[in-house]
Amino acid sequence: MTAEQPLPTLSPSGLLLLNKPSGVTSFDCVAVVRRQLGVKRVGHCGTLDPTARGLLLILIGSATKTQDSFLGLEKEYWFRGELGRKTSTGDREGEVCQTKPFDHVSKEQLEKALENFVGEIQQIPPLYSALKYKGKPYYRYARKGQTVPLLPRAVTISSFTLLSFASPFWEARVVCSRGTYIRTLAEDVAERLGTCGTLTELVRERIGPYRQENAHSLESLRQAGRDQLLTYLEPANAAPVIAHA
Predict the structure, then answer these.
(1) Is 54 exposed, middle or buried (0-12, 13-18, 19+ CB in 10 A)?
(2) Does the pLDDT value for residue 113 go beyond 90?
(3) Catalytic entry in 28, 49, 68, 188
(4) Within 10 Å of residue 12's Cβ, how many Cβ atoms?
(5) Residue 12: what pLDDT?
(6) SS3 91
(7) Is 49 among the residues known to form the active site?
(8) Where does residue 43 rank: exposed (0-12), middle (13-18), buried (19+ CB within 10 A)?
(9) Which of 46, 52, 86, 104 has its CA 20 to 30 A from that of 242?
(10) CA distances, 221 to each of 15, 16, 24, 44, 235 (Å)
């Protein structure tokens, strides 16, 4: 390389911790990072529904090759559920499709019901999800009113703790494996109690060793210059899988 030739610019690479707000998609967040850094190779490690908040891990550049080592990390969520009302999407965005009495449910009964979900369980994923059937996401079939096979999948619930109960609303914290749908969990708990239910609020607080409180807000990423954003990146070393893949 001669003195007249400029030094090559290294492409950004690393892990970015983002605190996703409600009302935007995970893809929207990826698009903001891609635009701010001016790089094409940007991806995330685990979709959050548009209404959900919390930690989203974003990989940049060559770090996207390490995605599999992050996908298997256990997740920790806080959520609020509602008894007596079920929606088409399993959360507050859907239309109410079923109502049932719920006054018979006590705090003690709810706590007891949660115990039955700890361990490995079979869970049927929701139709409104990003899982694919014949190359297309389930939600595309759902929006057209088409039905597709929904096969149960094994997931693991490491802990399930009731935080509060003020009927019909209840709050809980769950630590679970990859592939667990909290919307479905809220519905299944309600069904076990002889009623129906839906998810009204969801926050992902942790992915493996990475926590929401250490993440950057989406607004701060929008306002940050490229150089400042580069300082937010962490090494994307293969993170240890501390739960079930």
Answers:
(1) buried
(2) yes
(3) 49
(4) 20
(5) 87
(6) strand
(7) yes
(8) middle
(9) 52
(10) 14, 10, 14, 15, 18
